[in-house]
């Protein structure tokens, strides 16, 4: 049997921001539509507007071979300072489908590797006439820093353990379908490595703004102390979190952001916190299983659950393209208006 968890949860490790407030990161305000820096502070009306727009793009995408000129002439640099498959490909695909000019950028082979600062490098790129910067960076707050200084719209594609707003939006779109448009009175269990998860933070902000409740569960070392002040309930076991929930989101163990020793072993983690078929029976009938990917099959999620009938993992990925179309169009419109 697995060992009892310590009762005192430590502060999140490696996070350069404090729970629950990170005022330096919250700027510029979410009302500045040129940027999408996070879901924190976004209103129900703003979220609903983006989700409705994503629904429109999803319908157009579903007809196949979408190639339109919505963003014709809009130059978008995709600056990824961390590994990514689905987020990067999904942004690039959305940019191509909307007729934008996508510009790939990787730190290796750029002047950042010669010692130039991030801001100087991006100032240079924007001076060439780039309109939008999509940025993923290991340091929380990097997108906000760029938004404060660049004459371009900035979209956060994941900043450390802080936020991942387009992932949050695609999760909301997926849940809106599963829950037939109603968030009030619904509950979701988010389980696993909450401490290092920008996906969890964005989901929490978005779900609360739309009226759903969030239960968290994970090893004591991976659920940060104080996270209840974001309005979440912290369950004592995976079973308690799953009981009667309308959805569950499993999180990857983010070993690249973790100090050694936060989990005893992957086997023990899987036994205590892994989603398997037996545990899914605790959920409400009709509840869905989510995972942002990439998945560690057999660790946080059993293969038969990942591929099972309740899994909406591939719907999440598909919704990601529609959400990124909506976000890019929203930001590009605001950039054009600000420059007019
Ligand atoms: C996530 C990320 O990079 O934050 N993946 C994603 O974008 N879909 C989650 C993860 O890496 O575990």
Q: How does this model look, in words?
A:
The chain has helices spanning 23-26, 44-62, 86-97, 118-127, 142-149, 165-178, 198-210, 238-242, 266-273, 277-280, 303-306, 313-339, and strands at residues 75-80, 101-105, 132-137, 153-159, 187-191, 213-217, 233-234, 247-250, 288-290. The protein has 340 residues and is an alpha/beta fold. It folds into two domains: 23-162 and 318-339, 3-Layer(aba) Sandwich (Rossmann fold); 166-312, Aspartate/ornithine carbamoyltransferase (Rossmann fold). β1 (75-80), α3 and β2 (101-105) form a beta-alpha-beta unit. Residues 86-87, 158, 164, 167, 198-199, 252, 254, 292-293 line the site of N-carbamoyl-L-aspartate (NCD). N-carbamoyl-L-aspartate (NCD) binds next to α3 and α7.
Short description:
It is built from 12 helices and 9 strands. It is of the alpha/beta class and 340 residues long.
Helical segment tally? Answer: 12
Percent of residues in beta strands?
5-15%
Q: What is the overall pLDDT average? A: 91
CATH top level assignment of the largest domain = Alpha Beta
Element order, helices and strands? Answer: HHEHEHEHEHEHEEHEHHEHH
Roughly how many Å apart are the termini?
65 Å
Share of residues in helices: 25-40%
Tally of extended strands? 9
Q: What do we call the CATH topology of the largest domain?
A: Rossmann fold
Count of discrete structural domains: 2
Rounded Rg? 20 Å
Please give the order of strands in the largest beta sheet.
7-6-5-8-9
CATH superfamily of the largest domain: Aspartate/ornithine carbamoyltransferase
The CATH architecture classification of the largest domain is 3-Layer(aba) Sandwich
Which residue ranges are poorly predicted, with pLDDT under 50 across at least 5 consecutive positions?
A: 1-7, 10-24
Bound molecules: N-carbamoyl-L-aspartate
